[in-house]
Amino acid sequence: KAGVTQTPRYLIKTRGQQVTLSCSPISGHRSVSWYQQTPGQGLQFLFEYFSETQRNKGNFPGRFSGRQFSNSRSEMNVSTLELGDSALYLCASSLGWRADTQYFGPGTRLTVL
Amino acid sequence: DAKTTQPPSMDCAEGRAANLPCNHSTISGNEYVYWYRQIHSQGPQYIIHGLKNNETNEMASLIITEDRKSSTLILPHATLRDTAVYYCIVRVLQGSARQLTFGSGTQLTVLP
Hints:
Structural class of chain B: mainly beta
Largest sheet of chain A: 7 strands, mixed
Oligomer: heterodimer
Radius of gyration of chain B: 13 Å
Order of helices and strands of chain A: EEEEEEEEEEE
């Protein structure tokens, strides 16, 4: 079974631009979570989606948003990029709301110049 | 906030068992202990999890103390490819707080 896939793997943007990252969960998984990883803050939870609904949200500004489609694929969007948004963005999928293990994708490395 | 305490770094000789400790003294009755590892710049890899009983899979063993306030991840025969940051996480499975909260982890270096 294929793992979690994320596209693109690498991205370079400039301040003020916006970016959309994509995540395809493991087949059959319906829950998708997003995390941001930076050297200074470590791995931090952004949000979780299940059945196209945001179920849980971390402590990030409104510039960070996401959505989930009916096929469980998810996208996250960051508007008005700042230098501090440079990070590895990780997507994790799990079977469902009552399920347990989250499996991570390889991440998207975003660099903001 | 992370609710676990791990040593920042450990070394282990190749072929020997690596024992990674984790303290979670404030763990609640409905919280599971999870272990993930992350090799540099890759996504975290799930290793094992448990609630009360010791668990074993093809990658590792998890030993949880009877009072559940600490646990140990055991890699029975460490290889160079096991060099990674190992994260011990406690989490509930239902409700609004079911996300993974990562601490600083333990950098395990397997030495040849």
